[in-house]
Amino acid sequence: MIHKYSVQLAKYLSYELNLDRSRQAVIAYGLEVLIGGTIKILVFISIPWLFGIFPQFIAAFLSSAFLRLPSGGVHCSAYYRCLISSLLLFLFIAAISKYLVTFKLPVHFFLWFSLLTALITFIKLAPVDVKEKPIRCDTRRKILKIISCLMPFIYLVVFNIFNLSSDIILASSMSILFHTFTLTNLGHKFFRLVDKIL
Amino acid sequence: MKKYFLKIIVGLASMVAYIGIYPSSWVSLYQPEIPEDLIK
Predict the structure, then answer these.
(1) Same domain, A37 and A124
(2) What is the predicted pLDDT for the residue at A73?
(3) pLDDT in tens, A39-62
(4) Sorting pLDDT into bands at 50, 70 and 90, what band is A77?
(5) CA–CA gap between residue A148 and residue B33 (Å, rounded)
(6) Which of A33, A34, A97, A125 could disulfide-pair with A171, CB 3.0 to 4.6 Å?
(7) What is the pLDDT of residues B24-35, one digit of tens each?
(8) Which of A17, A78, A191 sits opposite B10 (nearest CB)?
(9) Which helix (H) or strand (E) element contains residue A184?
(10) Any alpha helices (H) in chain A, and if so which ranges?
(11) Which residue in the set A31, A65, A79 is minimally distant from B30, CB to CB?
(12) A98-153 pLDDT, tens per residue?
């Protein structure tokens, strides 16, 4: 639906401003990303806030998002599937971490474990591209791999500088682990199944 | 005034598209199909 509206809006803009056809496709793509992103941000703020798990949700979401930038990962085949699956996933992680924090768990061990797993996976697999947005340039691929491999170290520094609470560390650790999972073949199969179910 | 407003929208959409645009894969698990012009 967002795709359809973006294309229509881009057509209208091209007509009004006399733009050529290739520019129209770029504008439609930009609009789709913009509109989709805005809706997602609104949903990702309001729903976790209603459930009272906003800090854990944001920690999980940001931990995954910053890793996703260079390392890529699996994608759903439609916008609404992505919105529902990512919302449910981060809500689940946030709720679980809020609940588990009542037990005295070695959260720093979980963090180290998730970062180490991420590093090994990034060395082996990153960046994982998709057919909708392939990475065709080898230099770009190498740069993304280097950035991906640096990210776990950056996370480690950030987590050491800021004295974050246990629930936030737990939510981030689970999110990092899940992101790592989405890079693997098993992760791809899992998301194909989620795609079918939704 | 209307054209000025429309140009702002076009500029913003073009900027989002041209800077590589990871926001889509950032926040979500969905990646809209990228135009050929952007992957050349």
Answers:
(1) no
(2) 79
(3) 888 998 999 999 999 999 999 999
(4) confident
(5) 23
(6) A97
(7) 555 555 666 677
(8) A17
(9) none
(10) 2-17, 21-51, 54-71, 79-100, 107-125, 138-161, 166-183, 185-197
(11) A79
(12) 999 888 888 899 999 999 999 999 999 888 877 767 777 788 888 889 999 999 99
B5 to chain A nearest CA, in Å? 10
Instruction: Name the nearest CA neighbour of A188 among A118, A115, A128.
Output: A128
Nearest alpha-carbon partner for A182 in A75, A45, A105, A30: A75
Same domain, A46 and A57: no
Q: How many domains does chain A divide into?
A: 2
Structure tokens at A21: 């056809």
CA distance A140 to A97: 36
Residue position matching structure tokens 């999972």: A181
Partners of residue A85 in chain B, C-beta under 8 Å? 29
On whether both A60 and A47 belong to a single domain, the answer is no
Q: Please report the pLDDT score of residue A174 as a whole number.
A: 95
CA-to-CA dists, residue A51 to A46, A63, A87, A161, angstroms: 9, 20, 12, 29
| Nearest to A19, CA basis, from B24, B11, B27 | B11
